[in-house]
Structure formats: structure tokens, C-alpha cells
């Protein structure tokens, strides 16, 4: 964009960073001849930036700290009467709005209802009435960080600010890139405070170096420019800055690029770092991780498989210790391979919780209270900063389950003994799995699965084995007929008894009696 452009220059003033960011990304402003040239979090910041940005229009909130929209409007009308002013505010602030209209505010739009089309039309209408010489007035050179930020967020990778390229001629570049989402979510800092803190740290730690701090949507990029002979010193300086940022904000870590030479490669270089941000979850002890280290681990790792069937089967028999062991082994493999990015890993963790609660609810277990906290658990997972923290959230969830379920792992062998005892006591009658399950406080649908996993034998097979064993004892008594023995061992159908007996012993009941009576 050259100095004689007639694009309409707009400044956004709002104390809520998320609303400023939303306004910046409301539409492709350049398609309508509009350029967002500056942002400010209050009226005082706006007045300090006016001279540099030279906006044609200021979009301002009303209620802001330090200097609100009313005072800003009053000052603008005195110092910069040529600037158009549009108020973006809410219903509850109408009394303020009435006051700003005294100072020549052009229009008032409601934040919840503002649309891109409405705002574009208003800006174009307002600017079209300005004097041509005012629109053609060249804008003073903008801060390099603003120009870089606009370039990095643009969808035209080959169009870079030539006026900046001429300022960066030393020949070598390094980048640091971080996601700011967790730092904003888990600390008391807002976007403006975070930016101010990182700028101050850069000024302190990188005072001897040419650097630019660029703030994108949910991300921060730091550019360091130096001559090749200074490479070791440049890397050390970036590490000091990253350590200071980690100490100040706790939930902030960086990917560091490899050195590169061409200014026009800055955009592609920082874009290449973006996927690596999702792997920083594995580097809890490092403030800055070289991209080469992350890339090397990616090339030599395969994602470990998590056995969902085993997970579900263990839950069905309330074997929380088995689930815990499986989970710890999986996380140990992940920590070694770094094979899942942060997003995928957190969705995996949330899915495990959802699966566990759904399965146990289906078994009519008392997990309703824990289920109510599902969203809280999901939020904790989203806010996890490193893999150890994520693993601990899941292990705590399992501990909570263990305290709720009717049988803990220490009771498992006792339950197996109760099944044996139940069969021994009831082998001579029609054994009901439903009654047995009720007695043992288990869901009858999973009773057989539980027994098979613990005894390595089907429950029906075990019942038949006990019955046939009792039948073998009774066949030594000559006073009992085979039909009577069939009934005494729980078989109402004599033919079925004979069939099962031969399957278990290789002989019919008569053959067995004749053989053992010799």
C-alpha cells in the first residue's frame, strides 16, 4: 500500500481484547477499501496513537477504564475535529450515548447486533463526505510491528511490506512463536496487559537487538534481526526472553525457528511453526523449544494404540486399577513419542471421560453427580498446560470413580469367591444370572464378562462343570437312577444332562457308572 492510497483508515478503541479482535476479523476490510490501522484499550491509548495512525474514523466503546468514550470523544472534537467517530456500545449505556452525541458523534451501533455490511456502509458513507485532500493525505510510517502483523494475517503470502524489508538488511532472522490462549485463560491478565508485559520484557531482555513483537489472534510472534556473527548471542538472548516470559506468565512457552535469511520468508517461517505449538505440551520444563527438536521427534515416532475395548471391559467389571494401569502406560508412551498434538490429546482425554460415564450410567451405577461435573472436567482438560497435568486430571477422575462404584479392586477376589459359593449352593436348581447379579450388586449383562476375565472360563461352562462333578459323585450311589441324578444336579431335561455329561467326561452317565463300579 503506497502513501497516496485513498483507503479509509480506521482505529478500534475497546477495553475488551476479544471484541477488538472480533472487529478486526469481522470481514475482509480491504475488499471494501478499508484498513484497520490501530487498536487501543482506552481513550488515553487512542489519543497517544492518533498521530501515528492518522485514522479517518474511530470506532469506540463508551465504558472503558482510564479514559472512557465520552472523554475521548470530547478530546477528539477539540484536537482532531476532522476524524469521524462511531460509537459501538450496548443498550445499558444509552445515557452515555446521549452525551457523546453532543460532541458530533456520527452514529451509534449496538454491539450485539452490528453486522459487517452495516458497519462497512457507515464507514464508506462517513468517509465519502470528507475532503479529498484529507483522504489522500499520506499516512505517517506505521510501527513495524503493526505492518508485520497485518502482513502475517493477510491471505496474500507474496505481498509483503517493501518499506519494511528495506529496514531489515542485516541478513539473519530468528522467530519465537507462542500461543497466548492459556496465559489469558489461567492468569489475571487481559490481552492489553499481556501485550504490555511482553513488550516490556522484550525491551529489557533484547535492548541490544533489533526486534519486533507481533500480536496475532491468540498468538504472539517475536522477530529478532541480527548479523550472522551474532548467532550464538541472538539465540541466548531469545532464551533469556522466553525464560522471563515464562516466569512472568507461567502458562507461556515458545517454539524457536531455525535461522533464516530472507525477509520475505518471515510469513512462511512463522506459519511453519504453528503445528509445533501443539507439541509444546510435552516440554513442560522448557520456555523455548527449537523447532528442529520437535520435528526430529515427530519423524521418529508412531502413535501408540489405546485399546478402547480393554478400557471398556475393565470399566464394566469396575476394575479401576486395571484402567489406571492402562492409562499410565499409554501416557508414558505418549511422553516418549510426542505423537499426538495438544488438541487431539485433549479431545482423547475428554472422550475417555465421556465413554466411562456413559458406560457406567448404562450399568445403572451412581455416577450422576460426577456426570454433572463433566463440563468442569472438560474445562480443566482444555486448560491443562502440560501432559503431566492432563494425566493427573484423568487419574483423579478414576479415583473419584473408585470411591463411587459399589466394588473396588480390593473386593474383586471376594466377589469371585461369592460367585463360586453361589454356584455351589444353587447347582441343584435353575441358576438365575439376574438373581446372582443382584446379590453381588452387579449388572447381570456383564456378570459373565466379569467371570470370564477373572476366572478364564465362561460362567455357563463353570456351572456345568460343577454340576457334572456333583453328578459324578452321585453316580457312585446305586440307589439313584440317572434321571434322579439329573434332577438333583439342576438338569430338568435328562437327555440334555446326558449330552453335557458326555461332553465333559467323554462318556455317558451309564458308561461312567459301569466303569467306576468295577
Protein described:
The protein is an alpha/beta fold and 518 residues long. It has 4 domains: 134 residues, Response regulator (Rossmann fold, 3-Layer(aba) Sandwich); 155 residues, Alpha-Beta Plaits; 97 residues; 107 residues, Arc Repressor Mutant, subunit A (Orthogonal Bundle). It contains 26 helices and 10 strands. It is elongated, with a radius of gyration of 36 Å. The chain starts with 7 loop residues before the first strand and ends with a helix. The mean pLDDT is 84.
The CATH class label of the largest domain is Alpha Beta
Low-confidence stretches: none
From the coordinates shown, what is the CATH architecture of the largest domain? 2-Layer Sandwich
Number of domains: 4
- Sheet having the most strands: 5 strands, parallel
Helix/strand structural class: alpha/beta
CATH topology of the largest domain: Alpha-Beta Plaits
Question: What is the tally of helical segments?
Answer: 26
Q: How much beta, percentage-wise?
A: 5-15%
CATH homologous superfamily title of the largest domain? Reverse transcriptase/Diguanylate cyclase domain
Q: From the alpha-carbon coordinates, what is the Rg to the nearest angstrom?
A: 36 Å
Identify the strand order in the major beta sheet. 2-1-3-4-5
Query: Percent helix among the residues?
Result: 55-70%
Number of strands: 10
Through-space gap between termini: 110 Å
Overall mean confidence score, pLDDT: 84
Envelope shape: elongated
Amino acid at each position: 500500500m503506497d502513501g497516496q492510497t485513498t483507503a479509509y483508515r480506521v482505529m478500534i478503541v475497546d477495553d475488551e481484547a476479544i471484541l477488538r479482535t472480533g472487529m478486526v476479523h469481522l470481514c475482509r476490510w480491504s475488499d471494501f477499501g478499508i484498513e484497520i490501522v490501530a487498536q487501543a484499550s482506552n481513550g488515553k491509548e487512542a489519543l497517544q496513537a492518533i498521530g501515528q495512525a492518522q485514522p479517518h474514523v474511530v470506532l469506540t466503546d463508551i465504558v472503558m477504564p482510564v479514559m472512557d468514550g465520552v472523554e475521548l470523544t470530547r478530546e477528539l472534537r477539540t484536537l482532531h475535529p476532522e476524524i469521524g467517530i462511531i460509537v459501538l456500545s450496548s443498550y445499558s449505556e444509552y445515557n452515555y450515548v446521549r452525551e457523546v452525541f453532543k460532541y458530533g458523534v456520527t452514529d451509534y451501533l449496538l454491539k450485539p447486533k452490528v453486522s459487517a455490511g452495516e458497519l462497512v456502509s457507515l464507514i464508506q458513507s462517513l468517509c465519502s463526505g470528507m475532503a479529498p485532500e484529507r483522504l489522500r493525505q499520506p499516512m505517517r510510517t506505521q510501527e513495524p510491528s503493526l505492518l508485520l502483523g497485518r502482513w502475517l494475517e493477510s491471505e496474500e503470502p507474496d505481498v509483503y511490506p517493501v518499506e519494511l524489508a528495506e529496514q531489515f538488511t542485516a541478513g539473519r532472522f530468528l522467530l519465537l512463536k507462542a500461543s497466548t490462549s492459556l496465559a489469558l485463560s489461567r492468569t489475571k491478565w487481559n490481552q492489553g496487559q499481556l501485550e504490555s508485559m511482553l513488550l516490556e520484557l522484550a525491551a529489557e531482555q533484547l535492548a541490544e537487538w533489533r526486534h519486533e513483537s507481533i500480536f496475532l489472534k491468540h498468538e504472539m510472534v517475536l522477530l529478532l534481526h541480527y548479523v550472522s556473527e551474532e548467532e550464538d548471542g541472538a539465540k541466548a538472548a531469545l532464551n533469556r526472553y522466553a525464560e522471563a516470559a515464562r516466569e512472568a506468565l507461567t502458562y507461556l512457552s515458545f517454539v524457536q525457528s531455525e535461522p533464516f535469511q530472507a525477509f520475505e520468508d518471515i510469513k512462511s517461517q512463522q506459519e511453519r511453526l504453528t503445528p509445533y505449538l501443539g507439541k509444546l505440551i510435552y516440554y513442560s520444563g522448557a520456555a523455548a523449544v527449537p523447532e528442529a527438536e520437535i520435528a526430529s521427534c515427530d519423524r521418529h515416532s508412531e502413535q501408540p494404540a489405546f485399546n478402547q475395548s480393554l478400557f471398556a471391559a475393565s470399566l464394566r467389571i469396575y476394575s479401576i486399577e486395571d484402567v489406571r494401569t492402562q492409562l499410565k502406560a499409554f501416557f508414558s508412551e505418549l511422553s516418549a513419542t510426542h505423537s499426538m498434538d495438544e488438541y487431539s490429546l485433549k479431545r482423547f482425554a475428554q472422550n475417555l471421560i465421556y465413554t466411562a460415564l456413559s458406560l457406567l450410567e448404562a450399568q445403572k451405577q451412581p455416577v450422576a453427580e460426577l456426570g454433572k461435573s463433566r463440563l468442569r472436567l472438560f474445562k480443566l482438560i482444555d486448560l491443562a498446560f502440560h501432559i503431566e497435568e492432563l494425566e493427573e486430571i484423568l487419574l483423579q477422575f478414576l479415583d473419584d470413580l473408585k470411591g463411587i462404584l459399589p466394588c473396588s479392586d480390593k473386593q474383586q477376589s471376594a466377589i469371585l469367591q461369592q460367585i463360586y459359593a453361589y454356584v455351589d449352593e444353587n447347582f441343584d436348581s435353575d441358576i438365575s444370572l439376574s438373581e446372582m447379579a443382584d446379590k453381588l450388586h452387579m449388572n447381570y449383562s456383564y456378570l459373565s464378562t466379569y467371570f470370564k476375565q477373572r476366572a478364564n472360563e465362561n460362567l455357563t461352562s463353570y456351572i456345568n462343570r460343577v454340576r457334572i462333578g456333583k453328578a459324578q459323585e452321585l453316580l457312585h450311589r446305586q440307589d439313584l437312577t440317572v434321571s434322579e441324578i439329573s434332577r438333583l444336579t439342576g438338569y430338568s431335561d435328562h437327555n440334555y444332562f446326558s449330552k453335557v455329561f458326555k461332553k465333559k467326561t467323554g462318556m455317558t452317565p451309564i458308561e461312567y457308572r459301569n466303569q467306576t463300579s468295577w
